[in-house]
Amino acid sequence: MEGEQLPEASSQADERSRLVVVKHEPFNAETPPEALAAARTPTPSFFVRSNSAEPELSLATHRVTVEGAVEHPFTLKVAELARGPLRSLPVTLECAGNGRTSMTPLPEGEPWQQGALGTAVWSGVPLAEVLQRARLKPGALEVLVEGADGDASKRFARALPLAKALHPDTLLALEMNGAPLTRAHGAPMRLLVPGWYGMASVKWVTRLEVRTQPFEGYYQRERYIYDRGDGQAIEPVTRMQVKSLITSPAEGTRVAPGRVVVQGMAWSGERRVVRVEVAVDGGDHWRAATLLETPRPSAWVRWAFTWEGAKAGRHTLRARATDEAGETQPERAPWNRLGYGNNAVPVRVVEVG
Amino acid sequence: MEGEQLPEASSQADERSRLVVVKHEPFNAETPPEALAAARTPTPSFFVRSNSAEPELSLATHRVTVEGAVEHPFTLKVAELARGPLRSLPVTLECAGNGRTSMTPLPEGEPWQQGALGTAVWSGVPLAEVLQRARLKPGALEVLVEGADGDASKRFARALPLAKALHPDTLLALEMNGAPLTRAHGAPMRLLVPGWYGMASVKWVTRLEVRTQPFEGYYQRERYIYDRGDGQAIEPVTRMQVKSLITSPAEGTRVAPGRVVVQGMAWSGERRVVRVEVAVDGGDHWRAATLLETPRPSAWVRWAFTWEGAKAGRHTLRARATDEAGETQPERAPWNRLGYGNNAVPVRVVEVG
């Protein structure tokens, strides 16, 4: 067991060296900007968001309890699940707090800029298959997924509505980018909820409980909620909102006058992005960018825009994405007390000349 | 005359090399961040905002017409005025568009970040003295000050209400930081309107006209107005609003854990700043900073705050100033179509460790 942990710990140290640290304990770090320019984010550069210290669990021995409103509660051996077959999907994960530092007034919480974001190919077994083995009882409402992180009073645990839990793309993931999960990313097994902000993708899964009553835990009711602070009803944070990112020209770079290729990413939770537009300088003059691949749900799409006739001096670039439901990124996202879901149009200041 | 212009042109080239260029023609450039950390901004680092090409006027021969609703219209020889005595004042000048790139939606206009700002000691003759020589007629309402820049159809010209024009601190300035004005800063003579945004301090003054009817020129009625775009009345841009700047730690720097000294500037147009507060990380926990000098109107005051126990990782710092009238910087300034007067609380992301 010692021997099995060693390579993992080593790859983890390597991983951390490429991240932009936000907090050391618990470890929270962003994907560096250059890694966000690639279609797939390499694991050593993939952001890490943890609410507590990272548990150390062994793939060989770790077991997950499956219980609650099921006919056949059982204990799942993760090592058996890891033998496959595994289903693989490219999925974009974004922390709900990504972009918090651009919200005004500045909310409390981890000071994420724009790097709590990444896209990997995830491989795992549909959660639905495991639930089917346990056979749901009538009245099943949601599936509580509990991690091994946090102490007993504040375990990281999240309940997923039954329909989303049974979606074939909702995985108990064992691999990321073709290799076993690293400890920081939830080894040996995490939930992966495509299209939802990262908090739903519980790491270090240790217990599944099918519930007939809504779960009221801390990370369900006190955090990951939109509290507008204006007396409006509080809503849970779920689906990633439509958003885009400008990856090139990079922040603070100088580009030659004339033709400048602007590039970036766009995504919208469970929906397909259908349009990305770019505006050069301020005002309301938006022009269509080109999508560089066929958009699919739950993963970002790359886009490019050719800016002709860039003149020497300082300019601003903005990008905005629209999804198949017709939702467009706002220039300013609605403020909320905990600073979630900031999907505002990105503004990039560029020096030409 | 050739000989007289040469040194000026040469010092100007030197000046431009230290500025952060926003536009080459007409020349617009920001004060570099490091220069904003000094109580007085060196002339070669002092921001330049011009709406048209810079006129080339000779101190030896330039004359200013004084006319309109006056008993004794006359022609002012600038060289005579320059012989003194001159009145000297430290005055902070901020472009009305400073901070425009942080407004959302991003307005059109020069993409100023936070460097269209500087403080110099200005020396000149009170405008009131010149007006007294001409003797105002009854019914005088405002004083139109015209620059030599812009073509005949769109000359840069601004009218100042009589009370402000007659204020003893409103100067026809001939020197900046103890030396004759440079061409970029309005040589040989500019208006200096302490406490008002920079557009009021007309450069390259060529004509003064005492008016009995409101001036309706382009730079008075079409620009430098607050147009909220919501049907509210359009208001002229006048007084600089209460604002602060964090100068240290500088953007993108890493500081050692423990005790971190946070420093900056604060100003509020014609009013004194009475309080600066700092918040570490998000939320609403503001603590008093120390003002490092006795606040005076029209010039910024330096402040410092000691942040104890800074832990490794990323943190955010905010500063907010309050003036003697009780006005406090907002976390977000009201949007307006042309992007003026952004006095929002500054947010500085700092890496500790």
UniProtKB/TrEMBL annotation, chains A, B:
The keyword Oxidoreductase applies. InterPro entries: Ig_E-set, MoCF_OxRdtse_dimer, Mopterin_OxRdtase_euk, OxRdtase_Mopterin-bd_dom, OxRdtase_Mopterin-bd_sf. Keywords: Metal-binding, Molybdenum, Oxidoreductase. Its cofactor is Mo-molybdopterin. The keyword Metal-binding applies. One of its GO terms (biological process) is sulfur compound metabolic process. It comes from the Bacteria. Its EC number is 1.8.3.1. Residues 238-344 form the Moybdenum cofactor oxidoreductase dimerisation domain. Coiled coil: none annotated. GO terms for molecular function: heme binding; molybdenum ion binding; molybdopterin cofactor binding; sulfite oxidase activity. Residues 55-219 form the Oxidoreductase molybdopterin-binding domain. It holds the Pfam family Oxidored_molyb. CDD domains: SO_family_Moco_dimer (cd02110). This is Sulfite oxidase.
